[in-house]
Design brief:
Layout: E1 11-15, H1 21-28, E2 32-37, H2 41-50, E3 56-57, E4 73-76, H3 99-109, E5 113-118, H4 127-136, E6 140-146, E7 159-165
Parallel strand pairs: 1-2, 1-4, 2-3, 4-5
Antiparallel strand pairs: 5-7, 6-7
Length: 173
């Protein structure tokens, strides 16, 4: 067929993939997964079952940023233990605080969009740092609180979602 222009599907990279919650949503929205990064063995097995052809790495600290190619979206819920009201709330001082790794990969990959998720306790630990980091990287952001009951779940389970966009992404070719 001549004169028909095709458009590639948007591509996302899943960090801190867990069992693939973000991945499932982005897939259902018609996007393609470039790769997943998840350190937990059980979660890796679940991901391998549902996304057998997707490249997967385990340790985010070893991801350089070029392994998955250019992507349109980076998504992930970075570890909540440093920020949870149920924990010690060490925030940035906690070794499990992996926001710096997420920020590093945003800076290297430069997707048009970033989607992050964490617990409400992040408001008083590193949320200001996260948002300032995104601004320094030239992203416009919005942070919103969404309780699970807003989506008809039978419990509150509030989560903070961070949505960020830049007009200066590294577009894929």
């Amino acid at each position: 067929v001549t004169g028909v222009q095709t458009c590639a599907l948007p591509i996302y990279l899943s960090l801190f993939s867990g069992i693939g919650g973000f991945d499932l949503g982005f897939d259902r929205a018609g996007m393609d997964c470039a790769g997943q990064v998840e350190i937990d063995d059980y979660c890796q097995r679940v991901l391998a079952k549902h996304w057998p052809d997707v490249p997967r790495l385990s340790d985010i600290k070893e991801v350089e940023g070029h392994e998955f190619g250019a992507v349109d979206v980076i998504c992930g819920g970075f570890p909540c233990q440093p920020h949870s009201l149920a924990g010690q709330r060490k925030g940035a001082a906690d070794d499990r605080n992996l926001w710096p790794e997420y920020r590093r990969l945003i800076a290297v990959i430069r997707p048009a969009w970033v989607v992050g998720e964490n617990v409400p306790g992040i408001r008083t630990t590193i949320l200001d740092e996260v948002l300032s980091d995104l601004e320094r990287l030239e992203y416009t952001w919005a942070a919103i609180s969404v309780p699970a009951c807003a989506l008809d779940a039978p419990h509150r389970r509030e989560r903070i979602f961070i949505l960020a966009y830049t007009e200066r992404p590294q577009w894929r070719t």
